Amino acid sequence: MLTQNSELRQSAWEAMTGNWKPAVIASLVIGVIFYIGAGVFTGCGVSSSFGISSFIYWVFIFALVMPIHYAFTIIMQNFLNGARENVLEDTYNYFKSNYSRAVITSVLVAVYTALWSMLFIIPGIIKSYSYAMTFYIANEMPEKSSEECVQLSMKMMYGNKAKLFWLDMSFIGWFLLCAITFGIAALFVEPYWFTARAAFYEDLKKETISIPQ
Fold first, then answer.
1. First and final CA of the chain: distance in angstroms?
2. Which phi and psi angles does 55 have, rounded to 5°?
């Protein structure tokens, strides 16, 4: 029986208590990299959605933003499990030492999700939940290929996608706060949300697969 969402959020909140500062700083730096980089790349070159600026933008997303997102996801998982790290430094170190795996895994998940989204938006959303555990699995099972991690995520999430969806929906008030504060609240909400999702994974893996310690 999976833990209730309220308990997952509580676990995440307890993990963050007293440790908000490094997590918020890391969230801020990652946000700055994304928004400044996106602005620079999309603000130059041809304005067409199929022009050179669009190409550079997507290279930027796949080569930098998504691998950083991958690293931050794992660092928040470590944070949940009791690691009191320099979050910004360790996100960078993890990004650097796992760069190729992060890129391949991130691109694979993005491509699969995009292909399903071409059918319609709902199938794409559903499949994104199927792939939601991929990063955690890739981190804890380095011997498995990125494709195997995607497949294992699908296995873990079979029958559990709605559970994760409702965990995400329980953050709706926080997401609205991000909107009305023009994204400022996201500096706090993003680490909290990522940690809650990590708590979901830690709970789910007890029910579905054995991860080597």
1. 22
2. -60, -45
The pTM is what?
A: 0.84
Instruction: Choose among 157, 168, 172, 170: nearest CA to 194.
Output: 168
Helix (H) or strand (E) holding 204: helix 186-208
DSSP string, 16-65: HTT-HHHHHHHHHHHHHHHHHHHHHHHTSS--STTSHHHHHHHHHIIIII
The length of the chain is: 213
Task: Check pLDDT > 70 for residue 52.
Answer: no
How far is residue 155's CA from residue 88's CA, in Å, rounded to a whole number? 32
DSSP3 helix / strand / coil % (the chain, rounded to 5): 80, 0, 20
Q: How far apart are CA 75 and CA 71, in angstroms?
A: 6
Across 15-39, average pLDDT? 78
Q: What distance in Å separates the CA atoms of residue 62 and residue 58, rounded to the nearest whole number?
A: 6
**69: number of Cβ within 10 Å:** 18
CA angle 72, 98, 156 (to 5 degrees): 65
